[in-house]
Design goal:
CATH class: Mainly Alpha
Structural class: mainly alpha
Largest sheet: none
Helix content: over 70%
Strand content: under 5%
Radius of gyration: 24 Å
Number of domains: 1
Number of strands: 0
Number of helices: 19
CATH topology: Amino acid/polyamine transporter I
Order of helices and strands: HHHHHHHHHHHHHHHHHHH
Distance between the termini: 31 Å
Shape: globular
Length: 505
């Protein structure tokens, strides 16, 4: 990509990264779900621990971003560290996982907007209509520059942070049982629900790695990407940790699990109303919809840049590698939007065929797809950490031992444990014991997509060695001008200018 399209500064990338995390959605719905599903009060500590783990991951990750400034971060880093076929496996996992998260959020947005319109205005618009409207707006923004998109997301994020900050202020001013820090005690993380709790808290950091995807559009990426990544981690971990602690103060730490199980995400909004601010609750609920919109926009950007990178290297249809003058991956973005329309339509058809009520997008699609996406992304974080370790094992002397060995090792151990815990607690995450078979089906589908990517790499190695050799480079493959006999251009034979001309003809 040309330097003329480098428009993103550190704050622009921070907006794009944090938007994917959907702060208001995580605090109002994710944190309460973590309390309710795990049955444990250590959610604030869980967010802080996951933030620390992601910070260790980011050390090696940011070093790789300096060495390999490619928009398809996971793809390029795994290719460099473990091999090109493994890189394609990572790209397949990334695309499928991000797509699953995006579809989950589209459906949740549709359900939330439909419920809000019902309660505020007394009219019903089907969730699918809201989902299609959101998708259309995302499709429009997807062909614009990331700089323009980041400004919109930055404004929405500011409003989200204000809403959560207001809740925290009320909770600290009027705690149910006085202020306490018991939820930060290590003992609150030890129990049967530890795996479930950590699965929910790590999900709040999904998309944190997307900073590197904007390296080709960033001004001075060697500094911008690491700074944006670390700032995003600091903001997200401290914000989630403090906000989930404030939720416990609003109910009393001894009763927070019970309150979350009884009220769910309404706990957040009910407390604001109980404090005498009923009139602003609808506005904050509207911000929940915009929070989801910001998240799907950020995930759309990530997916389209992966497709663009693969198309540019001709691993898939090369026209997907086309970009506009502003650097936007137009073809890949339009394809992703078209796929979104098909999947939302399929979800709508599934609802009618099964006879499920209008909670279908939230109870089924969001639950299944978000867990599928979260599982895949945790596996990707693990694979990338391993790749970083082996890359710097082959390229010694570039950075300190902490960057190249210690931090990646901590990340490998941490994400390895996280991966096992999520898999072991997948039944709890699905939320329906009768659907036990999904414990095998959903993770199996995600991992099979990775296998398919690996097999594609092995196929390219045999059929198109020029494309295979170029995987992870960040530029189109160089094709030979003409297949010529070996002896024609043999070093032992002096080739005349006339012969050279004939060769190129």
């Amino acid at each position: 990509m040309s330097s003329t399209v480098r428009t993103l500064r550190t704050h622009n990338i921070v907006f794009l990264v944090v938007a994917a995390a959907a702060p208001l959605t995580v605090v109002s719905a994710g944190a309460t779900a973590a309390y309710a599903t795990s049955g444990m009060s250590g959610v604030p500590l869980g967010y802080l621990l996951c933030g620390g783990l992601v910070a260790f991951f980011s050390v090696g990750f940011c070093a790789m971003a300096k060495e390999i400034p490619n928009t398809a971060a996971f793809f390029s880093y795994v290719s460099a560290g473990l091999g090109k076929s493994h890189g394609l496996a990572a790209s397949s996992l990334a695309i499928v996982s991000y797509t699953a998260m995006q579809i989950a959020l589209y459906c949740l947005l549709g359900y939330t907007a439909s419920s809000l319109a019902d309660s505020l205005f007394g009219f019903h618009i089907h969730w699918s209509i809201w989902a299609f409207i959101a998708l259309s707006l995302v499709a429009f923004l997807g062909v614009k520059s990331a700089d323009a998109t980041s400004k919109i997301l930055g404004f929405l994020l500011f409003l989200e942070f204000c809403a959560v900050a207001f809740f925290c202020f009320l909770a600290i001013r009027n705690p149910a049982d006085g202020l306490s820090i018991e939820t930060l005690s290590p003992a609150t993380l030890i129990g049967a629900g530890t795996g479930t709790l950590l699965a929910f808290t790590i999900a709040g950091f999904m998309g944190i790695e997307s900073s590197a995807m904007y390296s080709e559009e960033a001004i001075n990426p060697s500094k911008t990407i690491p700074n944006a990544t670390l700032i995003s981690i600091l903001i997200i971990s401290s914000f989630y940790g403090f906000s989930s602690w404030a939720i416990a103060q609003s109910t009393g730490e001894a009763l927070v699990v019970e309150a979350a199980q009884e009220s769910g995400s309404d706990l957040f909004f009910n407390f604001i109303a109980e404090q005498g601010y009923q009139t602003i609750v609808p506005f904050i609920q509207l911000l929940l919809v915009t929070s989801l919109f910001a998240a799907v926009t950020a995930f759309h950007n990530s997916i389209s840049r992966y497709l663009m990178a693969l198309g540019r290297e001709e691993v898939i249809w090369k026209k997907l590698g086309a970009v506009s003058q502003s650097g936007a991956p137009v073809s890949a973005s339009l394809l992703q939007s078209a796929f979104g329309f098909i999947v939302i339509g399929a979800a709508l058809a599934a609802q009618y065929l099964t006879g499920y009520d209008d909670t279908f997008p939230s109870a089924i699609v969001f639950s299944w797809m978000s867990n599928a996406g979260g599982f895949g992304l945790v596996f990707l974080l693990l694979a990338t950490s391993i790749s970083v370790f082996f890359y710097f094992k082959k390229h010694t002397g570039l950075y300190s031992a902490f960057v190249t060995k210690i931090a990646p090792t901590v990340a490998i151990i941490g994400f390895g444990i996280m991966f096992v815990l999520i898999l072991a607690n997948f039944e709890n995450l699905i939320g329906d014991a009768e659907l036990w078979y999904l414990v095998f089906i959903i993770p199996g589908i995600i991992l099979l997509c990775g296998v398919a990517g690996f097999l594609r790499g092995e196929q390219l190695k045999r059929s198109h060695p020029d494309i295979y050799a170029n995987i992870g480079s960040g530029h189109p493959p160089v094709k030979p001008a003409l297949d010529t006999p070996r002896d024609l251009l043999s070093p032992q034979k002096q080739t005349t200018p006339v012969e050279l001309s004939l060769i190129h003809i």
